[in-house]
Amino acid sequence: MLNKKILIVEDESIIAEDIADSLIALGYRVTAIVYSGEEALQSAAEERPDLVLMDVNLQGEIDGITTGENIRSRFQIPVIYLTAYADDHTLRRVNSTKPFGYIVKPFEEKNLHTTIQLALHRHQYDCLTNLPNRSFLREKLSEILNHQKEFRGVVPVLTLSLDKISRINSTLGHDIGDSVICSIAQRLTNGIENMNIVARLEAAEFAIIIELVAGKQDAINIAQSILEIVAQVIIVESFEVYVTASIGISLYPLDGSDADELLKNAYTAMYHAQEKNGNNCQFYASNVANYSMNRLSQEVCLRNALKRSEFEVYYEPKVEIKTGKIVGAEALVRWNHPKKGQISPGEFIPMAEEMGLIGSLGEWVLETACRQTKAWQNEGLGQLRVAVNVSARQFEQKNLTERVSEILIETGLDPKYLELELTESLVLQDETAVFQAFSVWQSMGIRVAIDDFGTGYASLSYSKRFPFDVLKIDKSFIRNIADDRQNAAITVAIIQMAHSMNMRVVAEGVEDERELAFLCEHDCDEIQGYFFSRALPKADFEALLKSGKHWLYSIAQPIAQPQSETGSRQ
Ligand code: C2E
Ligand code: MG
Ligand code: MG
Predict the structure, then answer these.
(1) Residues with CB under 6 A from ligand 1
(2) Ligand 2: distance of its center to the CA of 370 in Å?
(3) How many CA atoms does the CB half-sphere of 7 hold within 13 Å?
(4) Segment 240-251, tens digit of pLDDT
(5) pTM
(6) Computed over its alpha carbons, how large is the radius of gyration of the chain?
(7) Choosing a second label site near 254 at 20 to 30 A (CA), which of 33, 192, 304, 477?
(8) pLDDT, tens only, 463-516
(9) HSE on the CB side for 514, CA within 13 Å?
(10) Which residue's CA is the closest to the ligand 1 atom numbered 25?
(11) Distance (Å, rounded) from C-alpha 537 to C-alpha 141?
(12) Three-class secondary structure of residue 32 per DSSP
């Protein structure tokens, strides 16, 4: 990571020089210091730095956010924003650009270093395909459509999703999954003629826009050739991997008049292709209502699931490193679908959010988890703490803070045993609302944790403004921590910084002994993960508590009792 080239865009020269000195002391190279957006664009084009530090307020015509967006989409260079104070509006604008990092001035050198490390790291993930993102795509598509309005041309919009990529991730690992996505991105960029834009929408989803087609048949031919290109074998490390794709196509002007509508309809068609088992392309058409019917019935199921008691809360132990003992649990919801079996929250939480069901589901999880924890405490199974996830949409519920306190009163759980886990992105979303909720919760004694830290906006200094009690390092950093020097360095830096801000540090996704040993050695406070135990149904968790399973710190070996092994049903 060191020796990376950094461009500084900052209109106050004293601050700029200061930052430059810090960067050089940290081992980075400073390509230039510039004072305006215009100069920044020129310097980025000429010097191609690895990263840009961008003041939000700049001299000249264009401000920092617009400049940053331009640099990111034109040159795929990650941008970290700097600002002394941000009002809600600025913050929302910064947030909408999905920045690689965000630092509030004044900041400490260590903090700057970690934010840069995280940004460079995320860039390898995130921009792993080097493709433009959704906002760039929408902008370009709108330009093309404006142009075509005059010429009355047809523009096909394709969305493509790789089939069963999650299976590759789970069987061969995320690194291989990422490499597969990269190869596909390259094939798409190099292999399609007359293609104007390929963009990456989501992890394994792309959009392709083609100009200069005569009509529908051309679009079919192109989609067919894309399916063939995708289906060719990919060699990653020593694996031969085969993937297929589902493609949805909408046609301008037939299926929509603007970028959003065309993308939405292409998506609908793509879901239809997925429903036909993938490896095919579908046009948007009214009969795609098939898909919607299916979705509708799924929604009906989800809507009734709460009434039919199909949800269940699982408990994943949180273990204190110092003592090796279970000090609490994270409540994780599961859906026991009567026909499909158990469905993980990754699948249905987004749907529940879209349908406006997350409020009642979230309340149910909170209440169940608090009641259960109180019951375990009453049984003498320890003064356990329970952590409950709160998603961004739950924040839109006006009475969230009141419901939390009502539930605590109803269940009798002392607020100090409740921890709420929020994600980084949420904190940036609606600062005022989050701030208010924070104050109320913390005054009640509830602990607030920042979840999946490092995957969002790398806003370490941000956490200064929100006094989190707990920081949870995302499992992607814990993976192979004993061998992966980059992950190790980032994790150590995060732990030190969090401690300097008086936060407890929890590492999630600890899967083996070496990961645990590393975390012990570097003063992490608590761990969760498969190494100790998966999330368990309540009876199994209770059995685990009773078994007294723990490890000895010095050897970091779990001492399993026979009962605990029968527990896992996952
Ligand atoms: P999260 O809060 O970051 O939860 C951690 C996820 O990592 C859980 O997945 C857990 O089972 C999994 N995990 C734990 N240890 C390991 C490990 O050693 N290795 C690996 N590879 N994975 C591990 P799960 O239960 O599928 O939950 C996924 C996400 O769904 C959660 O991420 C959380 O954001 C969300 N979620 C779960 N329950 C609720 C809920 O009640 N409300 C809300 N709003 N979100 C929830
Ligand atoms: Mg969580
Ligand atoms: Mg997490």
Answers:
(1) 316, 332-333, 344-346, 349, 362, 365, 389-391, 421, 451-452, 475, 508-511, 528-530, 535
(2) 16
(3) 27
(4) 888 999 999 998
(5) 0.64
(6) 25
(7) 192
(8) 667 788 999 999 989 988 988 888 899 899 999 989 998 999 999 999 999 999
(9) 7
(10) 332
(11) 48
(12) strand
